[in-house]
Design a protein that fits this description.
The protein is mainly α. It has helices at about 5, 10-25, 30-40. The radius of gyration is 12 Å and the shape is flat.
Length: about 45
């Protein structure tokens, strides 16, 4: 992955933003729990 791709397009971010609420509801996974599992900050998610 190139640096441009890593910082990348907003399309994947928008898709995640669109799908995250539905996925969270189906899995009952909180933002905090996802952040812990991914080793990311809550703000990143």
């Amino acid at each position: 992955m190139t640096e441009g791709t890593a910082a990348g397009s907003t399309v994947p971010r928008r898709q995640l933003g669109r799908y995250r609420p539905d996925l969270s509801n189906r899995t009952r996974l909180t933002v905090r729990a996802a952040a812990v599992q991914l080793e990311w900050s809550e703000a990143t998610i």
